[in-house]
Design a protein that fits this description.
CATH architecture of the largest domain: 4-Layer Sandwich
Order of helices and strands: HHHHEEEEHHEEEEEEHHHE
Strand order of the largest sheet: 1-2-11-10-7-8
Organism: Streptomyces kaempferi
Low-confidence stretches: 1-9
Distance between the termini: 29 Å
Keywords: Hydrolase, Membrane, Transmembrane, Transmembrane helix
CATH topology of the largest domain: Phosphatase 2c, domain 1
Shape: elongated
Number of strands: 11
Helix content: 40-55%
Pfam families: SpoIIE
GO molecular function, one term: protein serine/threonine phosphatase activity
Strand content: 15-25%
Largest sheet: 6 strands, antiparallel
Radius of gyration: 30 Å
EC number: 3.1.3.16
């Protein structure tokens, strides 16, 4: 049985158990009313049963429980010989009216829930189209990624990442759009499209950075409000990892340097000479500095956005990424990011003031198996 099926079955069992509560209430209230003195009337409390049912069930089940409550009310009246009395008839009418109102509210709630589910499904599909998941293997590299959006109910925001093979090797980008929300998502989506197009057309990382700068500047000029000119930009880190050379080449456009994790359990942040962020019109390919670092088998690069290291705990302390990662240097990328994600969520209390993204890249020395023919 799959995890989904187990969860579905467990939810069904829980729903059936909860349904016993209103049924038990109907029985208890009925018995209590019958055995109580004649001057104590408990029948009106039967309306609690359909009200509780509507909390977790649909209109049909709620209406059925309401009908059962009315039958119990009628039985109480019949048992006391007052079924056709004005008092009992008024109680029956009130119970029927309240049960009908509860059913109507349940219908409206279910309709809104279905509409929300459809909207959420479309939004999730759109987000997955904008931010493709990274492949787990590219050549001799193993990759894993984590994205934690600051906006509730969102899967992506203003952070971005992508990876693609080029004649020069595997190229990776991670970036952070200034701001968050829908404008940041638009800029992130545009830059990802520009990267996927330009990654195969530029021989070096400086040329790639220049191409992204020109594309993003045109986009900002055409689509961003004029009163925000110069205030919209994207920090980005570009990587190039050749297959036949144990190095990694990096260009930082105002972005944080990654952590380099070696098998000897050393954690270091390479010194980078960052160029200006993309979109401000100052990224000149001729002035971009390419950092070249050793990247041997079993080495791991941990890329991240500032939302990770700027996450605060209740005391306002920033998340100490380098110190925490030093405990898990030997972990494969997937396990490493699971540990970091869990630890980061615990540190921040599950809430972030900014989007947070991480990528772990390990050189394995083993080629990924060829893709199956389709």
């Amino acid at each position: 049985m799959t995890a989904w099926n187990r969860g579905f079955a467990q939810a069904g069992r829980t729903s059936r158990l909860l349904l016993l509560i209103p049924v038990a209430l109907i029985v208890l209230i009925t018995v209590a009313d019958i055995v109580a003195p004649s001057d104590i009337v408990l029948g009106p409390l039967l309306v609690i049963a359909p009200a509780i049912t509507a909390w977790g069930e649909g209109p049909l089940v709620t209406g059925s429980v309401g009908a059962a409550a009315m039958a119990a009310q009628a039985f109480i009246g019949w048992r006391s010989g007052l079924l056709l009395s004005r008092n009992v008839l008024v109680q029956l009418f009130a119970l029927a009216a309240l049960s009908a109102l509860i059913v109507i509210l349940s219908v409206v709630r279910d309709r809104h829930s279905r509409e929300l589910a459809r909207v959420r499904s479309v939004a999730e599909a759109a987000q997955r189209v904008l931010l493709w998941p990274l492949p787990s293997r590219i050549g001799t590299l193993r990759l894993s990624c984590v994205y934690l959006a600051a906006e509730e109910e969102a899967e992506i925001g203003g952070d971005l990442y992508a990876a693609a093979r080029s004649p020069q090797g595997t190229r990776v980008v991670i970036g952070d759009v200034r701001g968050k929300g829908l404008p940041a998502i638009g800029e992130a989506a545009f830059l990802l499209g520009a990267f996927r197009e330009a990654v195969h057309q530029n021989a070096g990382l400086p040329a790639l950075a220049g191409s992204l700068e020109r594309s993003l500047s045109r986009y900002l000029d055409d689509f961003e409000p004029t009163d925000e000119a110069g205030e919209r930009f994207v920090t980005a880190l570009l990587l190039e990892i050749p297959e036949d050379d144990p190095v990694v080449r990096m260009v930082s456009c105002g972005h944080l340097a990654p952590l380099l994790l070696r098998s000897g359990r050393a954690v270091s942040a390479p010194d980078l000479a960052p160029a200006p962020p993309l979109g401000v019109g100052l990224t000149d390919p001729g002035e971009v500095t390419v950092a070249v670092l050793p990247f041997a088998v079993d080495d791991t690069l941990l890329l991240f956005t500032d939302g990770v290291v700027e996450a605060r705990d209740r005391d306002g302390v920033f998340y100490p990424l380098a110190d925490r990662v030093a405990q898990w240097v030997g972990q494969p990328p997937e396990a490493l990011l699971r540990r970091v994600q869990r630890d980061l969520l615990d540190h921040a209390g599950g809430r972030f003031g900014d989007d947070a993204a991480l990528i772990a890249i390990r050189r394995t020395g083993e080629q990924a198996p060829p893709a199956r023919a389709r």
